[in-house]
Design brief:
It is a single chain. With about 850 residues, the chain is an alpha+beta fold. Helices cover about 45% and strands about 10% of the residues. Strand 12 and strand 13 form a beta hairpin.
Length: about 850
């Protein structure tokens, strides 16, 4: 390197950032948004912030495995290191071609993210990153390498070092520094090291083989065996503490053939396809799942329509209420937790906020029900994709060993949206209609974010596998996507592809043929290109994606039916989704017996009485069934309705504490004689009236339990229509996702931030002429171009005179300015006009013309002639 090139080489990260163009700075700030929160005043501050521990840790956590391995290799390389030295550490003596091909990308990524700076002949890892990744006894390096010879011999006596030189047949030196250098040079020489190792006993070689890939530390006794003594005498093992020895880094690298890692991973593992299905089958299966998802959410809200379970004091559902919900939905408890959390995340349920707090549907639920089915599904799917609340952790334990409950606190996992989106993107990268091998998806995610694995393990997961959080979220994503209808048969459906903004896959001609398919249809295992990670979509892009998904899903939904098939066994079969009005009435008149492709409803005395309690007459029910049945109304169903209607309302229950009245005193005699009515505390007040100790609701339930069909009546004696009032919460906002760090900046913010940083850097680094008092030791205003980033200080008269002169000459000035809030800043301005106590100037830092009060200018200095 020439003298001019050396002088042009950056001497710090700030200088390296200073020579970047705007596109490169924008890439840095986009990949590390914490650097502009808040916007730094100039590039030196940006570089300082980029080297802080929190920011470096966050940047390292977002590196893929090979980029991280590259950073780890730089941490054990000389500082600075050349690109050739880095390549030797990554590819070894054999120079793996895959490593050589991938290393430029990894090095460019590290340089882009300001973790590495300098030219290719002087690569420097940011000091904080080196401290985090370099080997130490407390924090072993992922490479498995130990300290260098120089580090390991730092506390060794000079005499002992000379003894090691003699043992390896090196000439003695006059000082320890040159002795250590000679020893390190020997260990780094492949030919001489091979000769040295060839003279060792086989047992000594076995010891080195055990330590070579780490951990490099071992234990020895005060009187080591001969094969260990041979290693210690030659410096191949060096003592670090009493009874502890370490394999020097140079020796390990020789034994590893120069490689820093046992298995470099330059290429991401492929996502393998387990089976393939025709895209039409995938879409149809996903549409069926989407319909089932809508039905499940509606069933959940129907269960809670009059007010759902109570809210625990600490928030959330109790274990008992979650079990009841699971039984009502006929699903396992983890699946019930998923549906409850999905409805909560979509803003369909919330706490009512009353004294005895309960969960209930929100007003948004009524609006949601009026939407077309495809739009209702798109809202649920969009909520699921971006939610940070993670129902999979329900039942686990938090940091304080408290059980995590559904709808409770501490369920947010900020990594969830990114993992869900990435899993679906990997599925989109497979051939259309292909379902993935689950383990290959997890392996790919672990390659893309290796540091986000072991650091995010949670206690109480209950899975027994000790998986990292990202892998667990990925497993949940695959199962939840199938439940929701984003995937069908494990493959990404067309609406799911649109949901993540992926382009529509072309239909292949071969897939249009009617061919049998099954689990035996395997795809060849090869590497399919996955979608590359991009900046998070904006709210407008997400809205467009969900609208496209709804548009693609709508034709896949069957048209709602306006009829059912009545059967002689008191059941009705709905061969598909029903129109809303028909489904609502049938849901009151009958109980759902089974769900699936067709829904089976069963008519019982209790369900018919429920319809009569809701204000319908027997004639209404007969007419309804005749109108909506494609089969004749069975005679047993007609008899059931008439029999229940004939007995309905003969008994009347009102409020005394409660009373029963009936025109037929024989019926009252029958009730009094029934032992099952003893708990109601009944006694006769008149031939046609019984009084009870129970309240009216308990009395109604008790009489119905022993086979009667009483009706409630008002204080005026009229029959009360027992139509349940829907319980709604006040308007509630859906829970907001918890961001994973600062939000990614948009292009407008990036442009403004870069302009402000460059302007501030110009103001802080522009050469200034010394002011009038620069030669004085004190007083006289001092030096105008104050060093160290301090604001310039000049008297008011000097400031005014310099401003007026600059108006005539057109020169730029460096000023210190304090705004109305007291915040001080440095600015470079070109004065245009000075009058009335104000200066109007073109402000280079803001790239616009501004007017400043002169009394807020702390001082002024002229820029040097070569400041441009």
């Amino acid at each position: 390197m020439s003298t001019e090139e050396k002088s042009a080489a950056p001497r710090s990260l700030a200088e390296a950032l200073r020579v970047r163009d705007d596109v490169s700075l924008a890439a840095l700030l986009r990949s590390r948004p914490d650097l502009i929160t808040p916007v730094p005043t100039e590039l030196t501050q940006l570089a300082t912030r980029a080297g802080t521990r929190a920011s470096v840790v966050r940047a390292l956590e977002r590196l893929d495995r090979f980029a991280l391995q590259t950073a780890e290799a730089l941490a054990v390389a000389p500082d600075p290191a050349s690109y050739g030295e880095l390549l030797a550490l990554m590819g070894g003596d054999e120079q793996d071609p895959a490593v050589a091909a991938a290393l430029p990308r990894a090095a460019a990524l590290l340089r882009e993210q300001a973790l590495v700076w300098g030219a290719d002949d002087r690569l420097r890892l940011v000091r904080t990153a080196r401290e985090l990744l370099a080997p130490s006894p407390q924090h072993p390096s992922p490479t498995g390498l130990g300290p260098t010879v120089r580090e390991a011999t730092a506390g060794m006596s000079p005499g002992r070092i000379q003894e090691i030189l003699a043992a390896v047949r090196l000439p003695s030196t006059h000082d320890s520094v040159s002795a250590v250098s000679a020893l390190a040079a020997l260990f780094a020489d492949r030919r001489r090291m091979a000769a040295l190792l060839a003279g060792l006993p086989e047992e000594s070689r076995e010891v080195l083989d055990r330590l070579v890939w780490g951990p490099p530390y071992g234990q020895v006794t005060h009187d080591p065996a001969a094969h260990l003594r041979a290693l210690l005498d030659r410096g191949l093992l060096l003592p670090t503490a009493p009874g502890t020895v370490v394999l020097p880094r140079e020796v390990a690298l020789h034994l590893r053939a120069g490689r820093a890692h046992r298995a470099p991973e330059p290429v991401p593992p492929p996502v393998e396809a387990a089976a393939t299905h025709r895209p039409q089958v995938v879409d149809a299966t996903a549409a069926g799942q989407a319909l089932a998802a809508l039905a499940t959410v509606e069933e959940l809200l129907k269960e809670w329509d009059e007010g759902g379970p109570s809210v625990l004091r600490a928030g959330g559902l109790s274990v008992r209420d979650l079990k009841r919900t699971a039984v009502a939905l006929d699903v396992p408890e983890p699946v019930a937790a998923f549906w409850v959390e999905l409805a909560y995340g979509a803003g369909l349920i919330a706490s009512d906020g009353e004294a005895e707090e309960r969960y209930a549907a929100t007003p948004a639920y009524d609006e949601w029900r009026e939407l077309p089915p495809a739009e209702r599904w798109a809202r649920l799917a969009g909520t699921w994709l971006t939610a940070t609340r993670t129902p999979g952790v329900v039942g686990g334990r938090d940091a304080k060993d408290r059980t995590l409950s559904a709808l409770g606190p501490n369920l947010d996992r900020s990594a969830a949206p990114e993992v869900r989106h990435r899993v679906l993107a990997l599925l989109a990268g497979l051939p259309e209609g292909a379902s993935p091998v689950e383990e290959s998806v997890l392996a790919r995610l672990r390659w893309e974010r290796p540091l986000r694995g072991p650091q995010q393990r949670e206690a109480g997961s209950g899975d027994g596998r000790g998986e990292d959080l990202r892998s667990r979220i990925a497993r949940w994503t695959l199962s939840e996507a199938e439940l929701l209808g984003v995937t069908g048969r494990g493959a990404l459906a067309a609406p799911g592809r649109a949901l993540i903004g992926a382009p529509e896959a072309p239909r292949r001609a071969a897939e249009e043929k009617e061919e049998p398919e099954g689990p035996g249809d395997k795809l060849p295992v090869h590497h399919h290109r996955a979608l590359t990670a991009t900046a998070p979509p904006t709210s407008a892009e997400r809205a467009a994606a969900t609208a496209t998904a709804a548009r693609l899903l709508a034709p896949l939904f069957p048209e709602p039916l306006d009829h059912v098939l009545l059967q002689a066994d008191l059941t009705a079969v709905a061969p598909g989704p029903l129109e809303r009005g028909l489904a609502d009435v049938l849901g009151v008149l009958a109980d759902v017996e089974s769900k699936g492709g067709a829904t089976v409803y069963r008519f019982t005395p209790g369900s018919v009485r429920r319809a009569l309690d809701a204000g319908r007459s027997a004639a209404d029910l007969h007419a309804f069934l005749a109108r909506h049945s494609r089969t004749p109304v069975p005679q047993p169903l007609t008899y059931l309705i008439d029999d229940v209607a004939r007995r309905h309302g003969r008994l009347r229950v009102g409020a005394a504490s409660a009373y029963v009245r009936c025109d037929d005193d024989a019926t009252l005699d029958e009730i009094l004689a029934d032992k099952r009515a003893a708990a109601l505390g009944l006694r006769r007040l008149a031939p046609t009236v019984l009084a009870a100790q129970a309240d009216p609701a308990a009395l109604l339930d008790g009489l119905r339990a022993i086979g009667f069909a009483p009706a409630a009546e008002s204080a005026a004696g009229d029959v009360l229509i027992a139509r349940a009032d829907s319980h709604r919460t006040p308007p509630r906002a859906a829970p907001e996702p918890v961001p994973d760090g600062p939000p990614a900046p948009d292009d407008t913010l990036l442009a403004a931030a870069i302009r402000a940083v460059r302007a501030g850097d110009l103001a802080s680094t522009a050469p200034r002429k010394p002011g009038p008092g620069s030669e004085a030791s004190d007083g006289g205003g001092g030096e105008a171009g104050a060093p160290g980033g301090a604001l310039p200080r000049t008297s008011a008269a000097e400031t005014l005179a310099t401003m007026q002169a600059a108006v005539l000459t057109g020169e730029a000035l460096w000023i210190g300015y304090v705004n109305a809030e007291g915040a001080a800043s440095q600015r470079v301005i070109a004065p245009i006009r000075v009058e009335g106590g104000f200066v109007t100037a073109y402000d280079h830092t803001a790239d616009e013309v501004r007017t400043y009060p002169l009394h807020r200018v702390t001082g002024v200095a002229e820029l040097a002639d070569d400041a441009g």
